[in-house]
């Protein structure tokens, strides 16, 4: 194709009100249906995050009541982690709102990475909570006291665990559906909290049944290590996102299959790169077409591939660089 033809491709694509000018590039503008879809999805995630704040406050009240009624160090450790849950729920809500802001001159690729900072904050606060639990438990081992946990304390903690268990399922499911790192990380944090609560209740039951008082603070120490492990996993995830780690192999395979299935009329796709930025997947690759393919035909192929990719990965920013057939790679690439 001639240079003039490629200029025509740029004008043709730029005439679409949903996209910025650029050769086979579908970066959404602030207005138009594509931008509205991203805004709507972000608002759904923010609504769920706001409900998480309410759930976290209710759970904190129940666990604090259980700790106050019993004087148990293990139940106290469970309540301390719920304080972290409240703080991170507020942080997740704020980050999702910020991440949903449209791209601007200072952030041309959007604000979605803000969600990774929430995961990092969550990891730091989890580490602080784990240390406070460990210190309280160690002190309780040195100054053992007779454990007396009334039925009301058990009931309050069990109720809190049931609420957390149900809500963590909602967060993980909706986080994956909406591609929200903040929601999914919050869900897995709550799941670790549920497991900790179950372990605490088991330890207290054993301590009461056996009369061995140090089992209560010992379980609290184990809970602190479990919380610390949860924080480490969140920290790794946030660092990976900030460092533009490639998606998992399942996502890469889905992208390759979508290109292969929708690329009729082209010859090859190569130099495929992808990364996640919060709920958005960035995808770019080179598309080789026959030399006699017109700009309009090339653009139609790009549109078809982009539609197929969105069906596979949801929210995506896709950049396709079209090349003539002499640019095909003899090794590697996706033959179409």
Please explain how this structure is put together.
It is built from nine helices and four strands, in the order H-H-H-H-H-H-H-H-E-E-H-E-E. With 336 residues, the chain is α+β, with helices and mostly antiparallel strands. The chain has a four-stranded mixed beta sheet with strand order 3-2-1-4, with helices on one face.
What is this entry, summarized?
With 336 residues, the chain is α+β, with helices and mostly antiparallel strands. The protein has two domains: 3-29 and 247-335, Cation efflux protein, cytoplasmic domain (Alpha-Beta Plaits); 32-242, Cation efflux protein transmembrane domain (Alpha-lytic protease prodomain-like). It contains nine helices and four strands, in the order H-H-H-H-H-H-H-H-E-E-H-E-E.
List the SSEs and their pairings:
Blueprint: H1 3-14, H2 32-70, H3 73-99, H4 114-142, H5 151-178, H6 181-210, H7 215-242, H8 249-262, E1 268-277, E2 280-289, H9 295-313, E3 316-324, E4 334-335
Parallel strand pairs: 2-3
Antiparallel strand pairs: 1-2, 1-4
């Amino acid at each position: 194709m001639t240079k003039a033809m490629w200029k025509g491709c740029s004008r043709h694509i730029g005439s679409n009100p949903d996209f910025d000018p650029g050769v086979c590039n579908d970066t959404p503008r602030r207005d138009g249906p594509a931008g509205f879809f991203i805004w709507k999805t972000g608002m759904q995630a923010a609504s769920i995050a706001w409900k998480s704040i309410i759930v976290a406050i209710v759970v904190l009240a129940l666990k604090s009541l259980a700790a106050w009624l019993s004087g148990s160090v293990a139940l106290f450790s469970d309540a301390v982690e719920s304080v972290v849950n409240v703080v991170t729920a507020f942080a997740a809500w704020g980050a999702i709102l910020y991440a949903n802001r449209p791209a601007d001159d200072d952030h041309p690729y959007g604000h979605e990475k803000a969600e990774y900072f929430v995961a990092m904050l969550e990891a730091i606060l989890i580490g602080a909570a784990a240390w406070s639990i460990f210190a309280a438990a160690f002190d309780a081992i040195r100054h053992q006291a007779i454990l007396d946990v009334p039925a009301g304390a058990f009931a309050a903690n069990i109720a809190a665990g049931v609420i957390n268990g149900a809500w963590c399922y909602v967060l993980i499911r909706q986080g994956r559906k909406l591609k929200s790192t903040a929601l999914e990380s919050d869900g897995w944090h709550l799941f670790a909290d549920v497991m900790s609560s179950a372990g605490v209740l088991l330890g207290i039951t054993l301590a009461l049944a056996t009369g061995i008082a140090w089992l209560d603070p010992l379980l609290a120490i184990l809970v602190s290590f479990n919380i610390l492990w949860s924080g480490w996993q969140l920290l790794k995830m946030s660092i990976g996102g900030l460092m533009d780690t490639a998606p998992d192999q399942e996502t890469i395979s889905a992208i390759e299959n979508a290109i292969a299935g929708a690329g009729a009329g082209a010859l090859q796709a190569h130099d495929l790169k992808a990364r996640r930025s919060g709920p958005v997947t960035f995808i770019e690759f080179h598309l080789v077409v026959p030399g006699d393919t017109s700009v309009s035909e090339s653009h139609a192929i790009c549109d078809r591939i982009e539609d197929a990719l969105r069906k596979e990965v949801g929210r995506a920013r896709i950049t396709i660089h079209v090349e003539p057939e002499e640019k095909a790679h003899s090794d590697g690439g996706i033959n179409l």
